[in-house]
Design goal:
CATH architecture: Roll
CATH superfamily: FAS1 domain
Low-confidence stretches: 1-35
CATH class: Mainly Beta
Order of helices and strands: HHHHEHHHEHEEEEE
Strand content: 15-25%
Radius of gyration: 17 Å
Number of helices: 8
Number of domains: 1
Distance between the termini: 28 Å
Mean pLDDT: 78
CATH topology: FAS1 domain
Length: 189
C-alpha cells in the first residue's frame, strides 16, 4: 500500500512537472549537468542503491529533495529510516494512511525528511565520540544523538536505533554518510 501511494504520487509529480515550460523562448539554454541517480557518490546515490530504503527514496523524490541530496559538492549525513520504519509509522496510524497524508503535504514531508539530515559527515566513530550530543538538522531543529543498548552500533538518534553505521558505499570517494535507522523521526512542533 505504501509503495503504491508513493509511486502514484511520484508519477503524478513527474507528469505535472513535465507539463511546465519556460515562457522565455529567447533565453539561452543553461548548461546543467545531468545526474544519473544511483551512479555517483552522493548520499542520494547511496539511497537509490539500497532496496531497504525504497520508501525513503520515494518520499525524497515526492518532497523535491533529490537534487539537494544528489549534490556531490556538499557533505551530508542522512539518518535514513528503513522501509520497516516507514511501515511501522503506517501501522501506528489507525486510518492506515499516514504515508499518503505526508505525500499529500510536501511542506510537512520536507520538514520531516530534512529533520533526518545534518550537514557534514558524521561517521560512526565521530558519532560515538560525540554522544551524547545534540545535532542541528538541515531543517534547523536539533535531534539528540545518544548511546543505545539495543542497536548493533550502540548509537541512537532521536530515540531511534542506528542500525548500520558508516553505511556509505565507498568510504574513500562517497560524499557524506547514510546511517540506516529503526524509526521515522518526527521534528518537534
Amino acid at each position: 500500500m505504501i509503495k503504491k501511494v508513493l509511486a502514484i504520487s511520484v508519477l503524478a509529480t513527474g507528469v505535472v512537472l513535465s507539463g511546465c515550460s519556460s515562457d522565455d523562448d529567447d533565453a539561452p539554454a543553461a548548461t546543467v549537468p545531468t545526474a544519473t541517480p544511483g551512479v555517483g557518490n552522493s548520499v542520494y546515490d547511496n539511497i537509490v542503491n539500497d532496496a531497504n530504503l525504497s520508501t525513503l527514496l520515494a518520499a525524497i523524490d515526492a518532497a523535491g529533495l533529490a537534487d539537494t541530496l544528489d549534490n556531490e559538492a556538499t557533505d551530508f549525513t542522512v539518518f535514513a529510516p528503513s522501509n520497516a520504519a516507514f511501515q511501522a509509522l503506517e501501522d501506528a496510524d489507525p486510518n492506515d494512511d499516514a504515508i499518503a497524508a505526508l505525500i499529500a503535504d510536501p511542506t510537512t514531508l520536507s520538514s520531516i525528511l530534512t529533520y533526518h539530515v545534518v550537514s557534514g559527515t558524521t561517521d560512526a566513530a565521530t558519532a560515538t565520540a560525540a554522544a551524547p550530543a545534540d545535532l542541528t538538522t538541515v531543517n534547523g531543529a536539533t535531534v539528540a544523538l545518544g548511546l543505545s543498548d539495543t542497536a548493533g552500533t550502540g548509537l541512537s538518534i532521536g530515540g531511534a536505533d542506528i542500525l548500520i553505521g558508516d553505511s556509505n558505499y565507498d568510504a574513500d570517494t562517497s560524499v557524506g554518510v547514510v546511517h540506516v535507522i529503526s524509526a521515522v523521526l518526527l521534528p518537534p512542533e
